[in-house]
Amino acid sequence: MTFDYAPAPESRAVVDIASHYGLFIDGEFVETIDGTTFKTVNPATEEVLSEVTEAGAADVERAVKAARTAYKQTWSKMPGRERAKYLYRIARIIQERSRELAVLETLDNGKPIRESRDVDIPLVAAHFFYHAGWADKIAYAGYGDRAYGVAGQIIPWNFPLLMLAWKIAPALACGNTVVLKPAETTPLTALAFADICRQADLPPGVVNIVTGAGQTGRLLVESPGVDKVAFTGSTEVGRQIQRALAGTRKGLTLELGGKAANIVFDDAPVDEAIEGIVNGIFFNQGHVCCAGSRLLVQESVHDEVLDALKRRLATLRMGDPMDKNTDIGAINSFEQQSRIDDLVRAGEDEGADRWSAPCTIPERGWWFPPTVFTGVTQAHRIAREEIFGPVLSVLTFRTPDEAVEKANNTPFGLSAGVWSEKGSRILWMASRLRAGVVWANTFNRFDPASPFGGYKESGFGREGGRQGLAAYLKQEVV
Ligand code: NAD
């Protein structure tokens, strides 16, 4: 049975997008010295939302200098309890402006408003609240209390404001100042955050936002005034950054790609597991570093799980991300859609069986229907490479040992999920899975108090929790 819903679009009137944005340096929006401009578009409609500045070398240096001055003159001199007040204030303003931020995120990113409203923005506020609580207790976290100084931070487009919060909140709590570069396809919520910093009366230069693409990111990484680099993005760019920083005294943390296994045993409650599989790979169109993109299902329940999964996927609603009924929004960019197309073609060419949910694809914008590949082997590219889209590769296993072996047979190690009724089996699996996070009978759950990060080619360093503070404190060398 299918239901037809009347559209329930969120109002766009709550956002006020300027036609042009400069860079946020030293507490104000300034025009570029040596940069250019680029356009940011709504991926669901291809409408140009605004013209944004692509920062050049002189702009990046100006931002780094502002951050250095703020570090020396105000932020490092301020006691933790005073820094905490700013973080609390920012958290509260985020809550007050949450509807506006959710709409802006959905317009610029293409993710469903239901997700930006109910997941991204509440987590952003939670991150600032959590780190506000730490700011006057840093010395008790166990990593010393010496901030690095200026942190250069680079983030991707899949959770634009949430990744900003994961970076900026701990950096400021520990006493660093920041120059952050958002991704080129999703700069708008970072620029709205700049306005929130002004509204919170954050001292000028403590947070600086430089927009631009990879070249701007490279300039920030290589700037001599940056003491610590924190990067979230692809493994390929992470490698380049690690090479560029080798031999320097800069601190580095890398949060990179993933290819998580979501492992379903034959005693798992099927209906719950189906919701977990859907959440694992189709949340945020699969643009999730820890997405459960490999489903490992015990052979005896393979057909039952696949039938139920396909029935469920056929009910997902793809379309206008601003509609509150929408489950699957737009792919963030033409480039990302091309990457997904290439890997899906590779899956077909290598002999896996493709099934895609029946969806009406909107005429404009970039879209990909929820897709499942069965008959996948470990050698297939779709089982090895990160697709970063709504595409699930299904493999089978017979024994827990085989499940562990297959789950760990990947260069990545960010996350995993285990579905089973048996607690002892979950603990046995969790101790053997080479993944930074293991979810049991759930998936994609986040809490600022819980550290997140990877093994192997998924990077190093943790974000969130007490452990996340270590990334922003200079460790004593003994
Ligand atoms: P990307 O590596 O292409 O870009 C990420 C950011 O780096 C962007 O801001 C980009 O402009 C910048 N950049 C590009 N080249 C650069 C260079 N040479 N020097 C410095 N900066 C540069 O990644 P993406 O396509 O935007 O994001 C998707 C990737 O991010 C996926 O691989 C995903 O798994 C990963 N990711 C990881 C986590 C995590 O916590 N581990 C979280 C979200 C996303």
Describe the structure.
By secondary structure, the chain is α/β, with parallel strands linked by helices. It folds into two domains: 12-256 and 458-472, 3-Layer(aba) Sandwich (Aldehyde Dehydrogenase, Chain A, domain 1); 261-448, Aldehyde Dehydrogenase, Chain A, domain 2 (3-Layer(aba) Sandwich). The chain contains 15 helices and 18 strands. It has helices at residues 57-73, 80-96, 98-109, 113-134, 160-173, 188-199, 214-222, 235-245, 270-282, 302-313, 334-349, 381-384, 400-408, 423-432, 465-469; strands at residues 20-21, 23-25, 28-30, 36-41, 48-54, 150-154, 177-181, 207-209, 228-232, 251-255, 261-264, 294-298, 353-356, 371-374, 391-397, 415-419, 437-440, 459-460. Strands 13-14-15-12-11-16-17 form a seven-stranded mixed beta sheet, with helices on both faces. The protein has a six-stranded mixed beta sheet with strand order 8-7-6-9-10-18, sandwiched between helices. Strand 7 (177-181), helix 6 and strand 8 form a beta-alpha-beta unit. The longest helix is centred in the N-terminal third of the chain and has 22 residues, at 113-134. It is globular and about 65 Å long. The protein starts with 19 loop residues before the first strand and ends in a 9-residue tail after the last helix. It binds nicotinamide-adenine-dinucleotide. Nicotinamide-adenine-dinucleotide binds next to helix 7 and helix 8. Nicotinamide-adenine-dinucleotide is lined by residues 154-158, 181, 183-184, 213-214, 217-218, 221, 232-234, 237, 240-241, 255-258, 289, 386, 388, 414, 454, 458-459.
